[in-house]
Every structure is written in C-alpha cells, then in structure tokens.
Design goal:
Chain A: Keywords: Heme, Iron, Membrane, Metal-binding, Transmembrane, Transmembrane helix. The complex is a heterodimer of chains A (about 130) and B (about 130). By secondary structure, chain A is an all-alpha fold. Helices cover about 80% and strands about 0% of the residues of chain A. In chain A, helix 1 packs antiparallel against helix 2 and helix 3 packs antiparallel against helix 4. Chain B has about 130 residues and is mainly alpha-helical. The termini of chain B are far apart. The chains are: A mainly alpha (about 130), B mainly alpha (about 130). At the A-B interface, helix 1, helix 2, helix 3 and helix 4 of A face helix 2, helix 3, helix 4 and helix 5 of B.
C-alpha cells in the first residue's frame, strides 16, 4: 500500500505505556504462531512416527525426552495453555463483556497466572508419575 | 461499476455478506480445538504409558481415531486462518505476500493430510512388528 509521508500516522506500539492487555494480546499472536509451527510439526512428527513403526517411534521418543526435547515440550505446553486461556478471554470479549479497565486488567493478568499454574501442574503430574 | 470514488466502489460491489466468515471460522475451529485438545491431553495423561504399543493401541480404537482426525483438521484450519492474519499484517510486499499465502496453504493442507493419513494407517494396520 502506497503511503504518503506527509500525513501523520496514528500512535503505534512505541508510544503506549505497556500494560497487561497489550502483553496478553501480543502473546496470543506469539503463542499461536509458535504452536502453529513448532507445535503442529511436533504433533505430525509424533503421529507419523507412531504410524511408521517401533524404530521411528523410538527416535521420536529419544528426541522428545532429551534435555532440549523437554525444554521444547515444556515451552510449547506453556504456549498452549497461554493461548487457551487467552482464547477463552477472547470469547468473553467477543460477547462484548470485560472491557471495564479494572476487569480487563485483572483478566489479562489472570490468563498468565492460569497458564503458568496449569503448565506447572501438568508437568508435576508427569514427573510425579515417572518417579 | 464505480471505480472512481470510494462510495462508487462500495455501491458497485456491495456487500457479499461474507464479511464475518473468516472471523466466525476462526471461532468455530477454536471451540473444536478447545474440546479436542483437552480430550487428547487428559487421555494421554491417563494412559498407562506413552510407549509405542500403548499409544498405537490407543489410537487404533475407532472412538479415538475419529476424534483425533477431527482434531488434526480443526487445528490445521485454525492455524491457517491465524497465520494468514499474521502474514497479512507483517508481509507488505505484494509478491512476497502471495508467496507466503501459497506456502501457508501448502503447509496447512499438507499437515492436515499427513496427520489424517498417519491416524488412518494406525487405525487400519495397528501395531507394526519390527
């Protein structure tokens, strides 16, 4: 799109003071695209490995349970829950609710708290079972 | 068909009544993803193990294979819509935008096909003996 330099732009990211609503909004995009690439490819790898046979599945498990594999899986699981809770917030906002400043700020922060708590709970369950 | 003023263009083309389609499809698939991924998560956590035989034996069950296929399709539809919006926002060059949409569509349809095929193979053949 051709843009005339003589016309002013509306204020953009650089001018605003950062707040929880902005953070949860950009994190929705970051987590969504992270899941869409790394997460979806990991899912397809897992399914393809299971469909191919025991050796392919063993290779997948070896990679997934390496230190880097755990780091990626824990990161992706946090991305998943952040995107999930942020998505639930979107459903509420879509209905036209939750725009009051105090409520909006509180629920924005709540998505981060919930995603971290649930991610921690899931991995404690997994590691607890392994012990 | 007006192509002079803005109002002329609007009067010429009018609304196709598809304005909300992308937005709604993003929500429909979001609900699908929400239900199906949580089902997968709880199922995996309650499996006795995540070794080859447990996982393949579980997926081979028809009441597992079908929702798992639906999950893969819902996920790839959702990510196609979501990544499309991201690319529209950040890729400004017209040629590159076209190319990125091409790649995105290949990725989304290819990924969904690969996932559905893998699940179908497991469902029809089951555990492969080495």
């Amino acid at each position: 799109m051709a843009r005339s330099n003589s016309r002013p732009l509306s204020p953009h990211l650089t001018i605003w003071k950062w707040g929880p609503a902005m953070a949860v909004s950009i994190m929705h995009r970051v987590t969504g695209n992270g899941l869409a690439t790394a997460g979806a490819l990991g899912l397809i790898w897992w399914l393809m490995a299971a469909a191919t046979g025991p050796e392919a599945y063993a290779t997948f498990v070896k990679c997934a349970t390496s230190p880097i594999g755990y780091l990626v899986m824990i990161g992706l699981s946090w991305f998943f829950f952040q995107h999930l809770f942020s998505g639930l917030r979107h459903f509420v906002l879509d209905m036209g609710a939750g725009y009051e400043l105090r409520n909006n700020k509180m629920w924005s922060i709540a998505t981060f708290v919930a995603s971290l708590l649930v991610t921690g709970f899931v991995w404690l369950t997994i590691f607890g079972k392994a012990l | 068909m007006g192509n002079g003023t803005g109002i002329g263009r609007v009067r010429g083309l009018g609304s196709a009544r598809h304005g909300a389609h992308h937005w709604l499809a993003q929500r429909y698939t979001a609900v699908g993803n929400l239900l199906l991924t949580l089902w997968l998560l709880f199922s995996l956590l309650s499996l006795p193990g995540l070794d080859y035989e447990s996982v393949v034996g579980w997926i081979a069950n028809p009441v597992v294979a079908v929702p798992l296929m639906l999950m893969v399709v819902s996920i790839f539809m959702h990510l196609r819509l979501g990544m499309q919006v991201m690319l529209e926002d950040y890729v400004h060059d017209k040629g590159l935008a076209f190319f990125s949409m091409l790649v995105l569509n290949f990725y989304a349809f290819g990924g969904a096909a690969a996932g559905v095929f893998a699940i179908a193979k497991i469902a029809f053949i089951g555990v492969v003996k080495p």
